[in-house]
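Honest question from a wet-lab person: if I give you the sequences of every part of a complex, can you actually get the arrangement of the whole thing, not just the pieces? Trying it with mine:
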Amino acid sequence: GQQVMQIPQYQHVQEGEDFTTYCNSSTTLSNIQWYKQRPGGHPVFLIQLVKSGEVKKQKRLTFQFGEAKKNSSLHITATQTTDVGTYFCAGRETTDSWGKLQFGAGTQVVVTP
Amino acid sequence: NAGVTQTPKFRILKIGQSMTLQCTQDMNHNYMYWYRQDPGMGLKLIYYSVGAGITDKGEVPNGYNVSRSTTEDFPLRLELAAPSQTSVYFCASSYPARGDEKLFFGSGTQLSVL
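Yes, you can. This is the full assembly:
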Protein backbone atom coordinates (compact mmCIF):
# COMPACT_ATOMS: atom_id res chain seq x y z
CA GLY A 1 0.00 0.00 0.00
CA GLN A 2 0.86 3.62 -0.21
CA GLN A 3 3.40 5.00 2.23
CA VAL A 4 4.23 8.62 2.82
CA MET A 5 7.57 9.33 4.44
CA GLN A 6 8.74 12.65 5.82
CA ILE A 7 12.30 13.69 6.57
CA PRO A 8 13.69 14.88 8.82
CA GLN A 9 11.63 13.78 11.80
CA TYR A 10 13.05 16.64 13.89
CA GLN A 11 14.48 19.96 12.82
CA HIS A 12 16.23 22.35 15.19
CA VAL A 13 16.65 25.76 13.58
CA GLN A 14 18.26 28.98 14.72
CA GLU A 15 15.93 31.93 14.32
CA GLY A 16 16.60 33.61 11.00
CA GLU A 17 17.90 30.48 9.27
CA ASP A 18 16.27 28.61 6.41
CA PHE A 19 15.28 24.94 6.34
CA THR A 20 13.52 22.41 4.15
CA THR A 21 11.40 19.40 5.00
CA TYR A 22 10.71 16.65 2.50
CA CYS A 23 7.81 14.32 1.78
CA ASN A 24 8.17 11.18 -0.33
CA SER A 25 5.50 8.76 -1.49
CA SER A 26 5.93 5.21 -2.73
CA THR A 27 3.16 5.79 -5.29
CA THR A 28 1.96 8.56 -7.58
CA LEU A 29 -0.31 11.05 -5.85
CA SER A 30 -3.36 12.94 -7.09
CA ASN A 31 -2.46 15.82 -4.84
CA ILE A 32 -0.38 16.69 -1.80
CA GLN A 33 -1.49 18.74 1.15
CA TRP A 34 0.50 20.33 3.95
CA TYR A 35 -0.74 20.93 7.47
CA LYS A 36 0.77 22.64 10.51
CA GLN A 37 0.07 21.56 14.07
CA ARG A 38 1.15 23.81 16.90
CA PRO A 39 2.07 22.09 20.20
CA GLY A 40 -1.13 20.97 21.92
CA GLY A 41 -3.23 22.02 18.93
CA HIS A 42 -4.91 20.45 15.95
CA PRO A 43 -3.66 20.22 12.35
CA VAL A 44 -4.43 23.30 10.29
CA PHE A 45 -4.46 23.21 6.50
CA LEU A 46 -1.71 25.21 4.81
CA ILE A 47 -1.88 24.38 1.10
CA GLN A 48 -2.79 21.85 -1.57
CA LEU A 49 -0.70 21.14 -4.67
CA VAL A 50 -2.21 19.33 -7.62
CA LYS A 51 -0.11 19.82 -10.75
CA SER A 52 3.21 18.18 -11.58
CA GLY A 53 6.07 20.56 -10.78
CA GLU A 54 3.75 23.04 -9.09
CA VAL A 55 5.30 25.67 -6.81
CA LYS A 56 3.29 27.83 -4.44
CA LYS A 57 4.41 30.47 -1.97
CA GLN A 58 2.86 31.75 1.21
CA LYS A 59 5.01 34.60 2.52
CA ARG A 60 8.16 32.84 3.83
CA LEU A 61 6.89 29.33 2.97
CA THR A 62 7.52 27.75 -0.43
CA PHE A 63 5.83 24.49 -1.36
CA GLN A 64 6.81 22.32 -4.30
CA PHE A 65 5.27 19.22 -5.91
CA GLY A 66 7.66 16.97 -7.78
CA GLU A 67 7.50 16.34 -11.51
CA ALA A 68 6.59 12.68 -10.96
CA LYS A 69 4.00 13.65 -8.30
CA LYS A 70 5.69 11.36 -5.79
CA ASN A 71 7.46 13.91 -3.63
CA SER A 72 7.03 17.36 -2.20
CA SER A 73 8.98 19.85 -0.16
CA LEU A 74 8.31 22.74 2.19
CA HIS A 75 11.01 25.40 2.45
CA ILE A 76 10.85 28.07 5.15
CA THR A 77 13.07 31.12 4.91
CA ALA A 78 14.15 33.36 7.80
CA THR A 79 12.60 31.09 10.41
CA GLN A 80 10.69 32.78 13.22
CA THR A 81 9.55 31.49 16.60
CA THR A 82 6.01 31.45 15.23
CA ASP A 83 7.09 28.64 12.88
CA VAL A 84 7.36 26.22 15.81
CA GLY A 85 5.19 23.14 15.38
CA THR A 86 4.89 19.91 13.45
CA TYR A 87 4.44 20.02 9.70
CA PHE A 88 2.60 17.15 8.06
CA CYS A 89 2.22 16.26 4.43
CA ALA A 90 -0.73 14.20 3.28
CA GLY A 91 -1.38 12.65 -0.10
CA ARG A 92 -4.04 10.69 -1.92
CA GLU A 93 -3.02 7.90 -4.23
CA THR A 94 -4.34 8.33 -7.78
CA THR A 95 -6.30 5.08 -7.53
CA ASP A 96 -7.92 5.96 -4.22
CA SER A 97 -11.24 7.70 -3.84
CA TRP A 98 -11.67 11.09 -2.27
CA GLY A 99 -11.11 11.09 1.44
CA LYS A 100 -8.38 8.47 1.74
CA LEU A 101 -5.45 10.69 2.58
CA GLN A 102 -2.23 9.14 3.86
CA PHE A 103 -0.39 11.33 6.35
CA GLY A 104 3.34 11.39 6.87
CA ALA A 105 4.69 11.17 10.42
CA GLY A 106 5.55 14.86 10.40
CA THR A 107 8.58 17.07 10.90
CA GLN A 108 8.75 18.61 14.35
CA VAL A 109 10.34 22.05 14.16
CA VAL A 110 11.99 23.69 17.13
CA VAL A 111 13.25 27.26 16.79
CA THR A 112 16.02 28.62 18.96
CA PRO A 113 15.91 32.42 19.45
CA ASN B 1 -18.11 30.04 13.04
CA ALA B 2 -17.99 26.81 15.04
CA GLY B 3 -16.53 24.57 12.29
CA VAL B 4 -15.83 21.07 13.66
CA THR B 5 -16.68 20.55 17.33
CA GLN B 6 -15.50 17.57 19.37
CA THR B 7 -16.49 16.51 22.85
CA PRO B 8 -15.13 15.67 25.35
CA LYS B 9 -11.67 17.27 25.29
CA PHE B 10 -10.21 14.83 27.80
CA ARG B 11 -11.32 11.45 29.11
CA ILE B 12 -9.86 8.68 31.23
CA LEU B 13 -11.34 5.21 30.81
CA LYS B 14 -10.77 1.96 32.60
CA ILE B 15 -9.98 -1.14 30.55
CA GLY B 16 -13.19 -2.65 29.22
CA GLN B 17 -15.30 0.49 29.54
CA SER B 18 -17.18 1.95 26.58
CA MET B 19 -17.60 5.52 25.42
CA THR B 20 -18.65 7.63 22.48
CA LEU B 21 -16.61 10.52 21.13
CA GLN B 22 -18.89 13.15 19.67
CA CYS B 23 -18.20 15.16 16.53
CA THR B 24 -20.40 17.69 14.80
CA GLN B 25 -19.76 20.14 11.96
CA ASP B 26 -21.81 23.10 10.75
CA MET B 27 -20.20 23.60 7.32
CA ASN B 28 -22.53 21.23 5.43
CA HIS B 29 -19.55 19.05 4.51
CA ASN B 30 -20.44 15.65 3.12
CA TYR B 31 -17.17 13.93 4.09
CA MET B 32 -16.25 13.31 7.72
CA TYR B 33 -13.32 11.43 9.25
CA TRP B 34 -11.92 10.08 12.46
CA TYR B 35 -8.15 10.01 12.95
CA ARG B 36 -6.00 8.96 15.85
CA GLN B 37 -2.61 10.51 16.55
CA ASP B 38 0.04 8.67 18.52
CA PRO B 39 3.29 10.45 19.47
CA GLY B 40 5.67 10.66 16.50
CA MET B 41 3.38 8.57 14.32
CA GLY B 42 1.35 11.10 12.38
CA LEU B 43 -2.36 10.66 11.80
CA LYS B 44 -3.99 7.30 11.13
CA LEU B 45 -7.45 7.11 9.57
CA ILE B 46 -9.90 5.06 11.63
CA TYR B 47 -13.18 5.48 9.75
CA TYR B 48 -14.61 7.92 7.30
CA SER B 49 -18.00 8.76 5.83
CA VAL B 50 -18.92 10.21 2.44
CA GLY B 51 -22.44 11.14 3.48
CA ALA B 52 -25.30 10.31 5.80
CA GLY B 53 -25.79 6.56 6.04
CA ILE B 54 -22.45 5.70 4.38
CA THR B 55 -19.32 4.78 6.31
CA ASP B 56 -16.12 2.94 5.46
CA LYS B 57 -13.06 1.61 7.25
CA GLY B 58 -9.73 3.38 7.24
CA GLU B 59 -6.30 2.03 8.15
CA VAL B 60 -6.95 1.19 11.83
CA PRO B 61 -10.68 0.42 12.37
CA ASN B 62 -10.38 -2.46 14.85
CA GLY B 63 -11.94 -1.70 18.22
CA TYR B 64 -14.07 1.17 16.91
CA ASN B 65 -17.49 1.70 15.41
CA VAL B 66 -19.12 4.67 13.73
CA SER B 67 -22.50 5.76 12.45
CA ARG B 68 -23.64 8.71 10.33
CA SER B 69 -27.33 9.37 10.66
CA THR B 70 -27.11 13.08 9.76
CA THR B 71 -24.81 15.26 7.67
CA GLU B 72 -23.68 17.13 10.78
CA ASP B 73 -22.82 14.33 13.23
CA PHE B 74 -20.26 11.53 13.11
CA PRO B 75 -19.80 9.84 16.52
CA LEU B 76 -17.01 7.33 17.21
CA ARG B 77 -17.77 4.45 19.56
CA LEU B 78 -15.21 2.50 21.60
CA GLU B 79 -16.89 -0.67 22.87
CA LEU B 80 -14.23 -2.35 25.05
CA ALA B 81 -11.48 0.13 25.75
CA ALA B 82 -7.93 -1.19 25.71
CA PRO B 83 -4.64 0.54 26.64
CA SER B 84 -3.65 0.48 22.95
CA GLN B 85 -6.46 2.96 22.33
CA THR B 86 -4.76 5.62 24.42
CA SER B 87 -4.29 8.39 21.89
CA VAL B 88 -5.45 11.78 20.70
CA TYR B 89 -8.50 11.52 18.46
CA PHE B 90 -9.30 14.09 15.81
CA CYS B 91 -12.49 14.45 13.85
CA ALA B 92 -12.31 16.23 10.51
CA SER B 93 -14.57 17.18 7.63
CA SER B 94 -14.22 18.18 4.00
CA TYR B 95 -16.17 18.88 0.81
CA PRO B 96 -14.03 17.42 -2.01
CA ALA B 97 -16.60 18.11 -4.70
CA ARG B 98 -15.80 21.83 -4.40
CA GLY B 99 -12.42 21.19 -6.02
CA ASP B 100 -10.18 20.86 -3.04
CA GLU B 101 -9.81 18.14 -0.46
CA LYS B 102 -8.57 20.15 2.48
CA LEU B 103 -9.55 18.86 5.87
CA PHE B 104 -10.98 20.95 8.69
CA PHE B 105 -10.05 19.45 12.05
CA GLY B 106 -11.70 19.62 15.43
CA SER B 107 -9.65 20.46 18.52
CA GLY B 108 -9.24 16.80 19.49
CA THR B 109 -10.05 14.42 22.33
CA GLN B 110 -7.21 13.17 24.52
CA LEU B 111 -8.12 9.68 25.69
CA SER B 112 -6.26 7.60 28.25
CA VAL B 113 -7.17 3.97 28.95
CA LEU B 114 -5.78 2.69 32.24
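Two things worth pointing out. Chain A touches chain B through 22 residues (CB under 8 Å). The CA atoms of residues 90 and 102 of chain A lie 5 Å apart.
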